[in-house]
C-alpha cells in the first residue's frame, strides 16, 4: 500500500498560487463582512472619572471601598436614575454590569485616601454622560446631607451651651446682687455660715460657667474646622464621549484579515483536493462500474 505523501511548504504555496482566485475571493468576502459589521453594530461608549470622597474635619464621609460598592449597587443606581429622570433602554439589572468602581490608593497603599474611579459604559454617548452625572450627583447629594447633619449637630450643641451659659450668668448676677444687698459680714450682725454658703454657691457657679465657656469654645473651633472640610467632588467635569470603545475598528479588521486568510487557504486546499484526488477517483470508480 502506498503511503500518503505529506504536503510540503512548496506544495502548499503552489496550491495557494494555483487557487489564488478562491483564496482571494474568501479573503475579500470576509473583509467586506467586517466592514458591514462595523457599519451596523451598536457602538459602546465609555466615560470614566475620579471621585474625591469628602471629609468632615479629618474623617472621610464614607470609606472608599463602601463608596465603590454603593456606586455599583442596584438600589443606588435605580434611585440615582429615577431622581435625575434618566431612562434606560435596557433593564437596570442588565446595565448594572456596565458600571465599575474601585478605590485608587496609589499614594498610600494602606490608608484609604478616598479616591474612587467610576467607569460607565453605554450604547449612547449622551445617555452615558447622563448616567455618569446621575450617579455622581446622587453621591454628592447624599454626602452633602451627611455634612449638613454633622454641622447642624455642632451648631445645635453650641446653641445649647450658649443658652446654658447665658442662664448661668444671669443666675450668678442675681446671686451677687442678692448677696450684696442682704448678706452682711459678722461685724454687721450677720452669721458667718450664711455668708460663706452664699459665696461658695457663687464660686461653684462660676466654675461651672468656666467649664461651659470652654466647651462652647471647643465646639466653635470644631465648627470652624468643619467649614474647612470639603464635600465629595469630581476631579474634573465630565464630558460627552466622542469616540466609541466597542467595536474597535482595528481589532475587527485585523481579526477579519486573519480569518479571511485562513479560510481562503482552507478553501484553496479543499478545491485542490477535490480537483486532484476526489474527482479522479470518482471518475475511475464510475468507469469501472460501466465496464462491468
From TrEMBL:
It comes from the Bacteria. The keyword Membrane applies. One of its GO terms (molecular function) is protein tyrosine kinase activity. Signal peptide: none annotated. The keyword Ligase does not apply. The chain crosses the membrane at residues 20-40, 250-271. Keywords: Membrane, Transmembrane, Transmembrane helix. One of its GO terms (cellular component) is plasma membrane. InterPro entries: Bact_polysacc_biosynth/exp (IPR050445). This is Polysaccharide chain length determinant N-terminal domain-containing protein. It comes from Sulfidibacter corallicola.
Amino acid at each position: 500500500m502506498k503511503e500518503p505523501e505529506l504536503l510540503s511548504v512548496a506544495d502548499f504555496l503552489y496550491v495557494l498560487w494555483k487557487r489564488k482566485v478562491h483564496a482571494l475571493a474568501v479573503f475579500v468576502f470576509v473583509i467586506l463582512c467586517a466592514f458591514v459589521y462595523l457599519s451596523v453594530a451598536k457602538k459602546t461608549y465609555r466615560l470614566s472619572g475620579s471621585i474625591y470622597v469628602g471629609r468632615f474635619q479629618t474623617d472621610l464621609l464614607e470609606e472608599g471601598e463602601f463608596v465603590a460598592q454603593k456606586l455599583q449597587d442596584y438600589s443606588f443606581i435605580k434611585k440615582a436614575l429615577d431622581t435625575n429622570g434618566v431612562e434606560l433602554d435596557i433593564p437596570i439589572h442588565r446595565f448594572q454590569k456596565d458600571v465599575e468602581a474601585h478605590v485608587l490608593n496609589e499614594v498610600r497603599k494602606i490608608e484609604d485616601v478616598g479616591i474612587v474611579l467610576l467607569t460607565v459604559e453605554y450604547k449612547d454617548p449622551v445617555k452615558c454622560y447622563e448616567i455618569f452625572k446621575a450617579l455622581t450627583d446622587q453621591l454628592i447629594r447624599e454626602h452633602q446631607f451627611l455634612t449638613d447633619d454633622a454641622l447642624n449637630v455642632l451648631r445645635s450643641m453650641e446653641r445649647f451651651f450658649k443658652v446654658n451659659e447665658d442662664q448661668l450668668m444671669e443666675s450668678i448676677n442675681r446671686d451677687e446682687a442678692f448677696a450684696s444687698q442682704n448678706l452682711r459680714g459678722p461685724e454687721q450682725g450677720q452669721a458667718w455660715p450664711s455668708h460663706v454658703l452664699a459665696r461658695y454657691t457663687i464660686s461653684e457657679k462660676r466654675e461651672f460657667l468656666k467649664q461651659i465657656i470652654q466647651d462652647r469654645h471647643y465646639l466653635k473651633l470644631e465648627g470652624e474646622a468643619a467649614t474647612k472640610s470639603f464635600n465629595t467632588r469630581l476631579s474634573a467635569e465630565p464630558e460627552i464621549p466622542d469616540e466609541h470603545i466597542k467595536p474597535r475598528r482595528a481589532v475587527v479588521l485585523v481579526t477579519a484579515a486573519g480569518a479571511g486568510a485562513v479560510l481562503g487557504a482552507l478553501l484553496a486546499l479543499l478545491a485542490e483536493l477535490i480537483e486532484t484526488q476526489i474527482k479522479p477517483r470518482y471518475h475511475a470508480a464510475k468507469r469501472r462500474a460501466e465496464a462491468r
